[in-house]
TrEMBL record:
EC code: 2.7.13.3
Histidine kinase domain ranges (all copies): 39-269
Residue stretches spanning the membrane: none
Protein name (record): histidine kinase
CDD domains on file: HATPase, HisKA
Principal EC category: transferase
Keyword rRNA processing among record annotations: no
Top-level division of the source organism's lineage: Bacteria
InterPro entries linked to this entry: HATPase_C_sf, HATPase_dom, His_kinase_dom, HisK_dim/P_dom, HisK_dim/P_sf, Sig_transdc_His_kin-like_C
Keyword annotations: Kinase, Phosphoprotein, Transferase
GO molecular function: phosphorelay sensor kinase activity
Record field: catalytic activity: ATP + protein L-histidine = ADP + protein N-phospho-L-histidine
GTP-binding is among the record's keywords: no
Amino acid sequence: MEKEKREIFREGLTGRDFHAFQEYLQLQRMEAIENLSRGIYHDLRNCLTVLKGGLEILSLKCAKSGNELCPRIKALRKIVEQLGELVERLSALQANGLEGHKEALELKDLSSEVKEILRSIQTGLPPGIRLRFEPSFCPLPVKMGPGECWRVVSNLVSNACEAMNGEGEILISTSLRQVSEEECRLHGNAYPGEFAVLVCQDQGCGIPEEMLDKIFEPMVTTKGENASRNRGWGLAIVYSLVKRRGGWIHVTSKLGEGTRFEIYFPLAK
């Protein structure tokens, strides 16, 4: 019954109101996913700690005795390492950070940080990919945790590369933007103020309209066989990191032309 009421309500919305409602629903889904990931993260981390300890003891005993089980134990350690990577991704989905963990935030200029990141990842991109960077003319001070900007930019660029099948131009830009109360009515998670805006625009295949409100959910991908082995995690991590810093993301896309991500970070006072 509640689902039917919500569908009727959605059908009565048009244009700006419908877009804001979609973003609001996306926000609610992501909060539910974050709460779920928090519980799973702690349980998996505790189990992995026990497994790692047990495997270390077995490895030492096998190494001394030359036991034929050594290769199997080595294979199990690789599986545990993969599970460890999964646990790290779950921790990154928690937009409010880990409980009991005090974050060390650093004051950074967004343009300078992005410039260095792009310079570092350029050599690892497919030969057919061109990066074009247009930095802001004014300083953009933001507060971020260690490595957070790297994860946001690298995941956005990786996502763009896959969308373009390894060929085309990716535009990255930074700018200062004043967001008014009127503009906030267009989004379900925006608020007025001054923001440092990071844009990543590709020339890829675009995202179907029915998928736009789902792209930040874990394990959701629009790229099928072209996606990397970490598919479905990159944008979910970007969403959570941006939200953790009090920001939000606006996405526009057109099939056959490409996708544009606008990341809003509040300016540090």
